[in-house]
Design a protein that fits this description.
Blueprint lengths: L4 H8 L11 E5 L2 E5 H13 L10 E4 L9 H17 L2 E3 L6 H7 L8 E4 L13 E4 L2 H10 L1 E5 L3 E7 L8 H12 L8 E5 L1 H4 L3 H8 L9 E3 L4 H8 L19 E6 L6 E3 L7 E3 L10 E5 L6 H11 L9 E5 L3 H9 L2 H8 L2 E2 L20 E4 L13 E4 L2 H10 L39 E9 L6 H4 L27 H4 L5 E4 L11 H9 L3 E4 L4 H9 L4 E3 L13 E5 L4 E4 L5 E3 L5 H8 L3 H4 L2
Parallel strand pairs: 2-3, 2-5, 3-4, 5-6, 8-9, 8-11, 9-10, 14-15, 14-17, 15-16, 17-18, 19-20, 20-21, 21-22
Antiparallel strand pairs: 1-7, 12-13, 19-23, 23-24, 24-25
Length: 606
């Protein structure tokens, strides 16, 4: 039986000649990375369990979330990581270097067929070169640093064939936004996607990075591109070891094969709140903006800079509109300087920052304020992700044109006179919460009061907002649980130890932050039962010995909010104590049970 690209990569890094979807196996990781906000927790885990680094040459820190060190907690964590790096001969790509996932490609730590893990949930960007990259939580990264391997469940693969030639004015960002329009945030949840077709074959590295970077927003494990000759040549000039690229077998088995006509694609924008809520730019009407941002791991490459410069050259940003531009890496920054692009940006009135992630994860540039409307080339516009305002997602061409026009538009529709700016303001109020203590043993039969939260796609920013990411003590995390989820901002005050949450699809989508699991542990929540989980979130919960289970339907037991249920983690049996009705959810699988009973992943590997 033939294998897909993902299956071939995983098999090549395991002890097996072949693998299939659903197999849970240990795989060797070629590049093991921690960022500035996750790095301190990784080191803390290693120190707490007395673990050492397996191979410093494959182990890296990348300080890209806050590369100015402008936040005191970031600065403390960065310094803590630098000290650990000095003592253990670990390479630090410091605040001048740029986004870690891009550096892995630039610096030759990954290549077609390689594996990598990072505390960055967009590590699947590496699918752009035909590598298997995954964002993981602090425990996973600590385990990878210690023994060079992590366990992984082989995902089923989907093949998407993009037919035809992209229309003029349709960019790589528009391709992924059109795909999000088709598939949403959870249709392809947990799948590995492979892209093929005429338009795919001619895509540059920068275009592939843009598309691959938003696999997470589709709920997918990764979007993989079969490497072109251009990509292979680029990687051979940088790779730190010889490699042979891997391609799918002709008889590879795909869960789904789809044929899509890209000639129908149009310039798109994601409306505030959800990356998959996409609409053609032409259908937005006149949407005023306060600010614009070009950069991030999705659109901070040199081709993006060139597109923006071509539109901005000889023009000015609309009065009182703020344009922020952040190249992805220092290499891109220097290329922009050498080509005169920085001068064009500054002449147009833009703020240009040093390389880094920018607005994501409360970074150095790109955040907006409450009531502010921003059009951004980023990959996420969840409430609070890039600030407290509203964020539309679009391509560099649309963002640059919008910055000149004062409203969201395409380059061909920039008016002679920018839209008059009107500002509205409101006062920001802080949420209040109180901490709870975590605790508990490892029972397999639990009983508790339920919270029914009937929502899909509850992302990690809603669970545990990025402004708290510098917190490393679990006991401090509970008070901030759900304080960015509308309707549940009092959850931390009202929750009781022993409570159980029942919710919808794709719970925990978004970031790789471990805190979005640990905050529930801090409150004493016993378990979360969801229709499905974001892939990284599920790993983080399992690794933290926090029970997460999935279900198809609970209608038969007629549950109501605040009912008491009894749940058997091993069999999946559920009983509603109010009426005695019984059903079953999907129970622990073997690896999950093993990790749970040993108190977590790092306890398991001792």
């Amino acid at each position: 039986m033939g294998m897909t690209i993902t299956e071939k990569i995983i098999a090549a890094h395991s002890k097996y000649e072949s693998v299939k979807p659903g197999d849970i196996i240990d795989i060797v990781i070629d590049a093991r990375v921690a960022r500035d906000f996750g790095g301190a927790n990784v080191v803390k885990n290693l120190n707490d369990f007395g673990l050492r680094v397996d191979d410093p040459a494959r182990t890296l820190f990348t300080f890209d979330c806050n590369p100015t060190g402008s936040d005191q907690k970031y600065a403390v964590n960065q310094h803590f990581c630098r000290q650990y790096a000095r003592a253990n001969d670990i390479k630090v790509y410091d605040i001048n270097a740029g986004i870690g996932t891009h550096l892995l490609i630039e610096e030759g730590y990954v290549w077609p067929g390689a594996t990598a893990v990072s505390t960055d949930s967009h590590a699947n960007i590496l699918g752009a070169v035909g590598a298997f990259g995954q964002g993981m939580g602090d425990m996973d990264i600590a385990a990878a640093w210690n023994n060079g391997k992590v366990w992984f469940k082989v995902p089923a693969s989907v093949r998407i064939n993009l037919h035809g030639v992209l229309p003029a004015g349709v960019s790589a960002k528009d391709v992924i936004l059109n795909l999000l329009k088709i598939y949403g945030a959870n249709t392809l949840l947990g799948y590995s996607i492979e892209l093929y077709g005429e338009s795919v074959e001619v895509m540059t590295l920068d275009e592939r990075i843009t598309i691959a970077s938003m696999a997470t927003e589709m709920g997918a494990i990764i979007i993989l591109f079969p490497p072109s000759e251009e990509i292979i040549t680029y990687c051979r000039s940088r790779a730190r070891q010889p490699f042979e690229p891997l391609f799918a077998d002709e008889d590879a088995i795909y869960e789904l094969t789809a044929d899509i006509d890209v000639t129908t694609f149009r310039p798109m924008a994601s409306r505030p709140g959800e990356p998959h809520d996409t609409v053609a730019v032409s259908e937005l009407g006149v949407t005023r903006i306060d600010s614009a941002f070009i950069g991030s791991c999705t659109n901070g490459r040199i081709e993006d800079m060139r597109i923006a410069a071509e539109i901005l050259k000889g023009k000015k940003v609309a009065p009182e509109v703020v344009l922020k531009i952040v190249p992805a890496t220092d290499v891109v920054w220097n290329e922009s300087l050498a080509e005169g692009l920085i001068e064009i940006f500054k002449s147009a009135g833009a703020l240009v920052s040093n390389a880094g992630c920018a607005g994501c994860a409360a970074g150095q540039v790109g955040q907006n304020g409450k009531g502010e409307i921003t059009v951004s080339t980023g990959n996420r516009n969840f409430p609070g992700k890039q600030g407290q305002g509203s964020v539309y997602l679009a391509s560099p061409a649309v963002v640059a044109a919008s910055a000149i026009a004062g409203f969201i538009t395409t380059p061909g529709n920039i008016p002679a006179t920018p839209l008059e700016f009107v500002r509205t303001t409101s006062q920001q109020t802080a949420a209040k919460s109180k901490p709870q203590n975590a605790g508990g043993e490892r029972p397999t039969l639990i009983k508790g009061r339920i919270w029914i939260i009937e929502r899909d796609n509850i992302d990690t920013d809603m669970i545990f907002h990025n402004r708290y990411l510098a917190i490393t003590e679990t006991g401090e995390m509970g008070q901030y649980t759900f304080d960015n989820l509308e309707g549940y901002r009092n959850f931390a005050r009202e929750a009781q130890p022993g409570d159980i949450i029942i919710t919808g699809k794709n719970f925990g989508s978004g970031s790789s932050r471990q805190q979005a699991v640990d905050c529930f542990i801090s409150l004493g929540i016993q378990a979360i039962i969801a229709r499905s989980f974001g892939a990284i979130y599920e790993r983080n919960a399992i690794n933290a010995a926090f029970p997460v289970l999935t279900y198809d339907s609970l209608a038969v037991i007629d549950i109501k909010d605040k009912d008491i249920i009894t749940l058997n983690l091993v069999t999946g049996d559920v009983t509603n104590e109010r009426n005695g009705l019984r059903t079953a959810v999907n129970p622990f699988y073997d690896a999950q049970y093993d990790i749970y009973m040993k108190g977590g992943l790092l306890g398991r590997i001792q």
